[in-house]
Amino acid sequence: MAQISNGHLPTVDSTRITVPVIAGTNRLEPRLRQHTTRSTRGHPTVVDLLLRPTPVRARFRLSPSDLTFLWEECPKCFYEKYHRLGSRPRIPFPSVFTRIDNAMRAYFVGKSTAEVSPLLPPGHLTCEETFIVSHDIIVPGREATCYIAGKTDCLAHFTTGGYGIVDFKTTEHKDARLALYRRQLAAYAYCLEHPAPHSLHLSPVTHLGLLCVEPRQMLTIVGNRRNYLFMGAPAWKPCSIAESEFVEFIGQVLDVLMLPVAPTANAACPFCAYRVGSGRA
Questions:
Q1: pLDDT category, 148, cuts 50, 70, 90?
Q2: Does 92-258 carry CATH code 3.90.320?
Q3: 145 pairs with which residues across the strands?
Q4: 154-190 confidence digits (pLDDT tens)
């Protein structure tokens, strides 16, 4: 068989074609197509084979928070964000909640898991904000694949083995949306147990939950009338979701993302309603 040398393909006797290749790119010169001929036997030439498009599997990077709220709020907004057809305008997040979250992480770092809940196994907490990434999630029967990337608030390291994920929330203990956070926590757990190369690997993740703090009372610090304390008892809200259930849910997400057009908007979505009303839909 003829060898390729000096950045050129060999001459093919059946079609008498010599094909130069762009050095360092391995791509054919765009003008070559007009100078090629097809084999008299009807078979594709070497150029045809090299220029034939290679199918590319769609691959999405998913955010744990989007799997929690955006997915539930509006499938059209979800689809358009991940196909880069348009995103919702950014809503300013009150910085006070960021400061509360930072204060909670600073307090709990190194503390016993009993500080969170006596229901947790003995162990200690690490509260550095950690960026984690999963390997590709391939769901049987789906053409597309995806991976998850996000940040954890707090990790529990149990003395008897295993790990836990603690997510801090400043919210009411009876918030009806708390059940939705199961997906976010399951996404974190998947990242830790099935990490991408060089990402943090912790396994098994045996406990997931939310530590909810609802400020209910304001007190004055004794001897200082200019400093106050907001008092509120924390509540531990354990969550559980089987990995198989989470992967099945990811399959549903991929089914929507691979639709040829965006799905119908949620009738209650204020962003889609605005776009329709303003003629921007």
A1: very high
A2: yes
A3: 59
A4: 999 999 999 999 999 888 877 667 778 899 999 999 9
Token pair belonging to 129: 């904000």
Which residue matches tokens 């912790």?
A: 202
The closest of 88, 3, 115 to 280, measured between CA atoms, is 88
Q: Strand 145-152 vs strand 59-62: parallel, antiparallel, or unpaired?
A: parallel
DSSP H/E element including 148: strand 145-152
Q: How many CB atoms sit inside 10 A of residue 17's CB? A: 18
Could you tell me the residue ranges of all domains in the chain?
Answer: 1-54, 92-258
CB 150 within 8 A of CB 64: yes
The closest alpha carbon to 108, from 236, 205, 230, belongs to 236
In the chain, which ranges are continuous DSSP H helix? 46-51, 64-65, 71-73, 75-82, 95-108, 181-193, 243-257, 270-277
